[in-house]
């Protein structure tokens, strides 16, 4: 099993567009798209801010993949 990010699901649940999430995070929308596609992942230092922007806990950003 491995953990995968579920940023896209949480962003949609929060009613945010990719651009809105990027603006809330202070990054370019291509960065948030890369996070959602898991091209690369957010830095650990960004996780609290990302969770706040999505209205969730840091643990909610991940789901177990079976």
Can you walk me through this structure?
The protein has 66 residues and is an alpha+beta fold. It is 48% helix and 12% strand. Strands 1-2 form a two-stranded antiparallel ribbon. Helix 2 crosses helix 3 (29-37). It is globular, with a radius of gyration of 11 Å. The model has no long low-confidence stretch (mean pLDDT 90).
Tell me the layout of helices and strands:
Elements lengths: L1 E4 L1 H7 L4 H8 L3 H9 L9 H8 L7 E4 L1
Antiparallel strand pairs: 1-2
Q: Overall mean pLDDT score? A: 90
Helical content (DSSP H or I, runs of 4+): 40-55%
Cα radius of gyration in angstroms: 11 Å
* Major sheet: 2 strands, antiparallel
Query: Shape from CA axes?
Result: globular
Q: Pairing-aware structural class of the strands and helices?
A: alpha+beta
Strand content: 5-15%
Order of strands, widest sheet: 1-2
Number of beta strands: 2
Poorly predicted spans: none
Number of helical stretches of at least 4 residues = 4
Assembly state here?
Answer: single chain
Separation of termini? 5 Å
Question: Keyphrases for this structure?
Answer:
alpha+beta; 4 helices; 48% helix; 66 residues
